[in-house]
Amino acid sequence: MAPSDEAPERLAVIDLGSNSFRLVVFSWVPGGWWKRTDEIFEAVRIGEGLETTGILQPEPMERALETIELYAHFCRATGIDHVRPVATSAIRDAANQGEFLQRAHERSGLEVEVLSRDDEARYGYLAAVNSTTLADGVALDLGGGSMQLTRVAGRLAVDMQSWPMGAVRMTERFLPDGPAKPKRLKTLRAYVRDELASVPWLEGAGSNGGRIAGIGGTVRNLAAAAQLAAGLPSYGVQGFRLERGALDDLVERLAALPPDERGRIPGIKPERGDLILAGAVVIQTVMEAGGFDELEASEAGLREGIFYSTLLAGADPPLFEDVRHAAVLNLAAQYHADWAHTRHVAWLTLDVWDALGRAGAHAADPAERELLWAAAMVHDIGMTIDYDDHHKHSRYLVLNASLPGFSTRESALIGQIARYHRKGNPGLGEFARLARPGDEALLVRCAAVLRVAEQLERSRDQTVRGVDVAVNGDVLLRLHSGEDTSVARWAAQRQAEVFRRAFGRELVVSD
Hints:
Blueprint: E1 9-16, E2 21-28, E3 34-42, H1 50-53, H2 58-77, E4 83-87, H3 89-93, H4 97-108, E5 113-114, H5 117-129, E6 137-142, E7 147-153, E8 156-163, H6 167-174, H7 182-196, E9 211-215, H8 217-229, E10 241-243, H9 244-255, H10 273-290, E11 294-297, H11 302-311, H12 323-334, H13 339-358, H14 366-378, H15 390-399, H16 408-419, H17 439-456, E12 466-472, E13 474-480, H18 486-493, H19 496-503, E14 507-510
Parallel strand pairs: 1-4, 4-5, 6-9, 9-11, 13-14
Antiparallel strand pairs: 1-2, 2-3, 6-7, 7-8, 10-11, 12-13
């Protein structure tokens, strides 16, 4: 994968959900980069009243038709020809579905595809597995009208189940108005537990080493609220682990508030406030049934699942071979990194790192090595903003990229390593609350090696072809090159101080 000047392709996915309608535009260059480039969100609530009547009500239907018409105008105005409108639970289950689809076509010109339960579950699974490292366990997709659970083994979907237990439906059925009385919450939990009895593979899935990853607006809002409640730095919830205890606390806080005040909790969007409690209880009950201690949140959703089925159409199933690797290369390509320089710095970084490991200068932890590689690949993306302080710009872009497959802690470490690839005294700073014991030393080690490798490539001409490392009191770096390495030796030697802090040894650079 490399940067490309080729004009990108564009796909607009219109997700007509039970609670909200979203138009998301994805742009990509085949074999290059991909990203979300536009989005329109409307809290339409088309599923309002469906639980009790079985049909789409006039007011929600009119809101929906106006929104679809707006989306169609937007696509025409912006020249997007590839548009895929899909409908999920509420429209799928409504007795007057046909009338709605006909009116939507008349007013917008769009042919809405009504996804079956299996199709909706499949796209949710693709979104979860392509945005996390979930290999064995459960993918959860909770929307306004329905919930899908997919059993995942070896990253493949083994079984998929769907229930009409979305946040809108469960709110209308069990928590329609007023305070959330304990009896109502108990009844809701019992209902969800009874429904989950139809999937025996869920019981004990977490106790057997399986993980659970979740998508959907309820998951994102709960993760954001838990993140803020814990006082953690917030750069999105991609990869955030929502722990059972934190979810239990949130359910208790939400239940103590009137519906119109739940949206005031930091992290909970106001338009979702009256629905969040029912959705939280459904997720809580799934985690209890499966024995999961934590749920990994993803910012991907049904829209991304549909997009991945287009982007990775040649694969069956359409999955990235390595989510983390693909995410890092995609981020680097998005910002048109100097590919020759970037790849060479990353190669030199690992060459030095591996040699130091063989010499016993560090523990050669493969997880640490991967974070170092990722930081090396994105260390210069801040140049897109400006050369001055581009190391800080790189960190900003990393932190706000929501790197799929990485935890919030790992993304913070990648950003900090990139931030210190030029200068400064490496430290965790505001990210200390995300850190594990030893992360400060990890950061210093990785930043020191990346900084040395960057300086070995200071002339940006790939002069240094490799290094030999000898450790005998000092660390001797002997450079391989058929050309003059004066600039590389001078620049790398200037990193002796940070290297000494990282490894407790003097650095000597020579031909």
